[in-house]
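Form 12-C: Joint structure prediction
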Amino acid sequence: MSLEAHSQKQREIEELPQVTIRFAGDSGDGMQLTGTQFTNTSAIFGNDVSTMPDFPAEIRAPAGTVYGVSGFQLQFSSSDIYTPGDVVDCLVAMNPAALKVNLRDLKHGGVIILNEDGFTEQTLKLAGMEKNPLKDGSLGKYTVHTIPMTQSTVRACEEVGLTGKGAARCKNFFALGIVCWLYSRPLEPIIEFIDTKFKDKEQLREANTRVLKAGYFFGETAELFTRVFRVRKAHLPPGVYREVHGNEALAIGLITAGQLANKPIFYGSYPITPASDILHELARHKQFGVKTMQAEDEIAAICSALGASFGGALGVTASAGPGIALKMEALGLAVMVELPLVVINVQRGGPSTGLPTKVEQADLFQAIVGRNGECPLPVIAPQSPSDCFQTAIDAIRIATKFMTPVMVLSDGFIANSAEPWRFPDADSLEPIEVEHPEETNGEDGSFLPYMRDEWLSRPWALPGTPGLMHRIGGLEKEDVTGNVSYDPENHQRMVDLRQEKVDKVADFLPEQEVLNDPDGTAELLIIGWGSTYGAIRETTRRLMRKGTRVAHVQLRHLNPFPKNFGAILERYADRPILVPEMNKGQLALLIRGRYLIDAKPLTKVQGRPFTTTEIMESVEHLLAERGKVAK
Amino acid sequence: MSVTEQPRKYTVKDFGSDQDVRWCPGCGDYSILSAVKKVLAEEGVPPEQYAFVSGIGCSSRFPYYVNTYGMHSIHGRAMAVATGLKVARPDVHTFVITGDGDALSIGGNHTIHTLRRNVDITILLFNNQIYGLTKGQYSPTSPFGKKTKSTPMGSLDQPIAPMALALAAEATFMARTIDMHPKHLMATIKRAMEHKGTSFVEIYQNCNIFNDGALDYAQDRKVRAENVIELEHGKPLLFGKDLDKGIVFDGRQLTVAQVGENGVTKDDLLVHDEKDSESYHAMLTRMKYPELPEPIGVFRSVQRPTYEELVNGQISEVIARKGKGDLKKLIEGRSTWEVREEGA
Ligand code: SF4
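Section 2 - Result
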């Protein structure tokens, strides 16, 4: 009899359409692992899942303090979902600080599961709590389960001879066991994980498995819980799925693009949160010929990537806002020398060091206009973790076809979140055609490095090719010959040509899709970019259920805009247009400037993604105002 | 290509570009350009096999004047660009042309890290002790107290010793030469090119517009013999126009001794060794005019695997062990699950 079937006999089962859980504890409590494992088992069970880790900026802040709290939120659902959930249904808190920091996101009447052993006089003091919330009745409006997790864990470990701190450290698996029981999750995938992780550490393998099961059986026998919950499988499109994080998908996408172009990836990078995981992931895959270099600084990272591109590799670099700021001069050089290069910005809260572990979208202007001179380049933004895969391939496709640097704007939310991904078959992916000339192209037998093709792209001639020796550099180039030129008319022509080339990328892009409005009768249009996709999509669905149709445009290409974007705006010009962004309204300003359309910004810079409720309220407010005017 | 084909002979003209050279007449850069082209012609390697990468400054215009592949990049970053190029294309002989401001001030960080990685590139650092292109401010190698436009009362910065910096950064090849000493210049460039690993060559170069004569003690043939010492592997450290002076180690420091006086013979002099030892090389890097003659020639030449060999070696090693990457497996990841058709 499986564990699940066994437990179901004991209690009443309540069916729920979806649940949002947040695990919270000290950074050393293993909450990320707990959350990841719960996600995994839910995905394998067949739910749709969406996750949001929340790391503190400090690596190991003093234990028990509020700034050392690490959290992991996930939503799992019986239908397809796009966000990790607005409000938390169940909060697992390992100590007072974790409870204090996260309580405000718990819904009224929500479930709290607390580690009783984590609530001592000392930890209460560290969390700055004068009274013990377990005793003062302040948690009255929630369903609270207080469980001596540490003691129970230590007891379970004793049986395999693991004692003391090592034993107590397994308590996250006890918490995981309880929650798996409460939400009728299978334990098998987690046990499989433990088996692999502790393959060579028999004692820990055995201890963690026992602790996990002990938590599960505790739920079953302790009579604390009057009922358990169940979230049925989601009706996802059929196919084979895996789970993927944004940074991981970017790395896999880059490697795939390298294979499709039959070229090595050269990745120059300097460690920075939240982009470093791309470097870690790429460094693991040297069998694909990927060359990674941890450079001495951000500037060397981009310059080495550009040097590699000059040599014929696919140069890539990544960073977050502060590092991108340092790369800007070199990015200008890349625009001038017209070589392919991909620059990834995993955006975080700014300015300066800002909120290094939190999400923001405030580097859009930096990407589009943040360089000296007229210095245009294509900018694209993935909308979800799995979408990073295709984005990386698209970036390399554009960079090589147009001989241009391309900026990819991901963010900290996408980077660290995970979702199920119905991944493509590698054989079905279209190759990336790259040509390197071997013959001269000038009438007199000379080689003209700035002679352009129909896309205004210049030839990518590689060192080592006889007869095509040429020099490139940051000084203004003479049209066609590429020689240094200070001629006024030539400068005007070259500035225009570089702009025209980037504009031409739009001809190469698919048309912009409008979601949720097949007949064009929606009452309002929402325009988003990047990771706001999930929250906007969820909002439009909730509004549909309430009888309000709202159209949704999620821009993947921010420079140039898709060719039909202007026409879409015109179509909706008689209705409110809302642009939710995690900045002070940068896209809205671009749209207003470019199209003279009254796009209304909805802005948020709190280091956290939008909730659907926030967007919904804004939509309802706009529609109500409009109603007033109409009357 | 047929096996019988003769390697082509190259001339200096094969390495000249069609661009007008725009340095000031009389600038030391001209003699360096001419020496490089001569050496390349002698090498017998076709021009497409070379790349010249530079940063910003007078010297950094160099790539435009040689008919090879080249990139005139941004201020201070040539070594980073060259590193990427060399890792991507170990087959391309890559030069970096840089100056004292470019390599030791704005790009100092890249100099350190390129040397420590031992990327197989040839760095020619034109040291004229001044900022030429920005019209005459003091540079990181200008002497303390140097009066320039930006330091009318004298500079307050202690100058950097490029060779000492290179050694501290684990350089495998360090040499110094002089623009106005063409034979020595060519021989040194040749040695640098032969070295497998980063070769770091400091070239004393005269900026006749903003710092004319600053390096006369080493450049002027009339006095040079008294002020510089030509290093030769295995030979004693002798100098002076009659080669009658030498360098001895008194147990604490290097000093000048007159051969034949106070019982000093040639056997008492230090014998130059490019391979050994690091502390001896360190003493050479600290020899400064006017206290001591300044060494020119190859200070140090030792072997260590190059960066691009190591990077590409790790790739070959993992492929040999595990085979080439399987894209399907990569995309699939560690664990997958299947969602079946409704009702199936
Ligand atoms: S300013 Fe000095 S270094 Fe520059 S080209 Fe003129 S003479 Fe040469």
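Section 3 - Comments
The two ends of chain B are 62 Å apart (CA to CA). Residues 12-220 of chain B form a domain with the Rossmann fold fold (CATH 3.40.50.970).
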